[in-house]
Amino acid sequence: MSEQLWSAVDSYICDLLAPADPVLDAALEASAKAGLPPIQVAPNQGKLLQLLARLIGARRILEIGTLGGYSTIWLARALAPDGRLVTLENDPKHAEVARANFRRAGLDGRIDLRLGQALDALKQIAAEGAEPFDLVFIDADKANIPAYFSFALDLTRRGGLIIVDNVVRNGAVIDAASADPDVQGVRRFNEQLAREKRVSATAIQTVGVKDYDGFALALVTGDG
Question: How far is residue 201's CA from residue 196's CA, in Å, rounded to a whole number?
């Protein structure tokens, strides 16, 4: 098995089930042209996020980590007619690219991009006392994932979903002695997830064009 084979299979799947889309392709092109890192989800992963949002009839979605807005567009397209998506981004350049991508997609009226440190934005969202989110997608700096997840738990309705990306780290997650703060952040999160009684959760390994990683999926049950 090789990354070349994984990528070829991803291409096969995407060609069939998540084919080229002018708006999404333009978002990727604009992000690349602006020099943003190519770390957005793959098309089939974006389609999975969209399907999960549609399955629960999401009206309110929170995304932590916007980058160029590629995954944001996938998720926003799944919103119910009266829905809204809040996305958090710390880098002004990333936010500028994302806003242009949202305008091109015709979704800027349904997306609230908040610029600044995610933890500060999450405190502000909590203070606003708005209705809870149906789905939260966490795809930001990994060292702070435990804190992001704690906020997500408080901000998500019972029966809602919390999705956390990049929880395998090319297999490095099993290295307890790793000096990488991202690996240690993911390890703390995984342990936190295992202890948390308010969710029913699992984690899935993935391979493909984005190499070897995985995501966690937590259903908020509120039973704890």
Answer: 9
Q: Give tens-digit pLDDT for 126-155.
A: 999 889 999 999 999 999 999 999 999 999
Predicted TM-score (pTM) of this structure:
0.96
- pLDDT tens digits for 96-125? 999 999 999 999 999 999 999 999 999 999
Q: Where are the beta strands (DSSP E) in 32-75?
A: 60-64
Structure tokens at 137: 């997608």
Please choose, from the candidates 218, 163, 207, the residue with its C-alpha nearest in 3D space to the C-alpha of residue 42: 207
Query: Which pair of tokens denotes residue 206?
Result: 């993935």
Quickly tell me which residue has 């992000």 as its tokens. Answer: 31
Is residue 58 helix, strand or coil? coil
Residue pair 215/165 in contact by the 8 Å Cβ criterion = yes
Among positive and negative, which fits the CA dihedral 140, 143, 145, 148?
A: negative
